[in-house]
Amino acid sequence: MNEETFSDEILMRFADGELDPDTVARIEQAMEIDDRLVTRIAMFIETRAQAQAALKPLLDEPVPEKLVAAVEQMIEAKRAGEKTEASVLPFGGGRIAGPPSRSQWMLPIAASLAAAVVGGLAGYWAAGTNERTPGGLWVAGVIRPALAQALATVESGKEIRLAGISDRFRAIATFRNDAQDLCREFEVDSQDRSTVVSVACRSGDEWRVSFAVVAPGDAGGYAPASSTEALDAYLSAIEAGAPMSAEEEGQALDEVRRKDRK
Amino acid sequence: MPEKTDRVQDQLIAFLPNLRRFAIALCRSRDMADDLVQRACERALANEQRFEQRTRFDAWMFKILRNLWIDDIRRRKVAGPQDDIDERHDIAGISGEREMEARLALNSVAQAIGELAGDQRDVLLLVCVEELSYKEAAEVLAVPIGTVMSRLARARKNLAEATGISMAPTRSAVTKGASK
C-alpha cells in the first residue's frame, strides 16, 4: 500500500480544524499506523495551545483606567450627537474627477481633530514664491512633475528634496485602495511652512492627490498626531489595504515608472 | 446612518483587553500599546458606518490597529534620525521594551513569539492566540489565504524549535518550509 504523504500545511489545517472532511478522514486513517505523522500534528496542536497560554496573562491584565476613560469619553462624545462634529473636506472638493465614492467622503471627526488645519489647499503651494505659481505642486488634485517623480521613485521610509524646490518629501507607505488603485501616503514640508500629510493615488496614468491635511508645524520633521488622525480616518474610509512590503512596493513602483516612460 | 451604527460603540469597551494584548504583542511596549489602542478606537468610531455586520468585530479592530502600527513604524523610521535623544527615547519606547522583557522573562514562549519575524508573529497572534480563522486572518493582513497558511506553518515550526516543543525532524520540514 502506498503511504500517503501529507504536507506540513495540510497537517496544520488538520490541527486547526480548517480542512475538508475527506482529507480529515484520510489523515485520521493514516495516523493509526504512522506515529511520525501523529508527532507532526501534535507540534501544531501544541504550539497553538502554548502560544495561547503564554499570552493569556496579558489578557487578564487590567486595562489602565486612563485608557478605558479615554475610550469611554470618545464613545460618549460620539453618542452626544452630531453637534460637535467637524468635517474634513477632501482636497479640491468637487474638482477631483473620479468615482463619487471617493470624492464624496465625509468624516465625522471628534473635537480632538480641530487642531488639524484643513482647507485652502489649492492655494497652499501657490502662495509661495513665483516659480511655484501657478499652482505649485498640484492643482485640483493633479500633480506636478517633481512630485510625480518622487512618488514613482522614493521608497517608503526615505526622504528626498524635491527637484527644483527645496521642500522635503517623505514617502510613508504604499498601499491599494478599495478600487485597487495604487496609492502612496507621503508628507511634504517646506522650510517656511508646515507639513502637508497627503495621499495620492494612481488614476489612469497619473497621480492624483486625494487627501491632504496641512499640519501646523514647527518644521520639526513630522506631522503632529491630530493630522494623522484625520489621515487614519481617511485611510479607513477608502478601505486602504495594509502597507505593502518593500518588495511589493518596488514592483508596483517599477510598473508605474514603466507606464510613465511610455 | 447613525441609527444602525451602535454596534461598534457597544462592543469597544469589552474588547479593550484583547485589543490591548494584540497591541502589546505587536509593539512590545505597554505605553505604545495603550496609545495605539486609543487611536484604533478613535478610528473605529469615526468609521463605524463602515463596519459590516457580517465581518467579525474583533478582526475588524485588529486590522485597524495593525495598519496604524505599520504606519507608525514607517513614520518613525523616517522621523528617527531627525529627533533628539529625548524624543527618540519616547518614540522608540526603549523603557517600554525593557519593561516588557522583564515582565515576560519567565515566559519563554512569549519571548519566542516576540522574536519571530513580524509576518509570522502577526499571523500566529491572530490565528492561534485570538482564534481567527485563516480566512479572517487573511482579511486582516490583506494577504492571500495561502500566504497565511505558509507563514503560520513556519511560525509554528520556529516557535517549536525555539521553545523545544517536540517535533519530528521530518524531511518535509526542510523542503516544504524552504519552498515557500
What does this structure look like?
The complex is a heterodimer of chains A (262) and B (180). Chain A is of the alpha+beta class and 262 residues long. Chain A folds into two domains: 8-60, no CATH class; 84-261, no CATH class. Chain A has nine helices and seven strands; from the N terminus they run ααααααββαβββββαα. Chain A has helices spanning 8-16, 21-33, 35-60, 65-79, 100-103, 121-126, 145-153, 225-237, 246-261, and strands at residues 138-139, 142-143, 159-161, 168-176, 182-189, 195-203, 206-215. In chain A, the strands form two sheets. A five-stranded antiparallel β-sheet of chain A has the order 3-4-5-6-7, sandwiched between helices. In chain A, strands 1-2 form a two-stranded antiparallel ribbon. Chain A starts with 7 loop residues before the first helix and ends with a helix. Chain B is mostly helical and 180 residues long. Chain B folds into two domains: 1-105, RNA polymerase sigma factor, region 2, helix turn helix motif (Rna Polymerase Sigma Factor, Chain: A); 107-180, Arc Repressor Mutant, subunit A (Orthogonal Bundle). Helices cover 76% and strands 0% of the residues of chain B. Chain B has helices at residues 6-27, 30-46, 57-79, 85-92, 94-104, 108-115, 118-129, 134-141, 145-163, 171-179. Chain B is globular, with a radius of gyration of 18 Å. Chain B starts with 5 loop residues before the first helix and ends with a helix. The model of chain B is unreliable at 1-6, 80-95 and 168-180 (pLDDT under 50). Classes of the chains: A alpha+beta (262), B mainly alpha (180). The interface between A and B is large, with 70 and 69 residues.
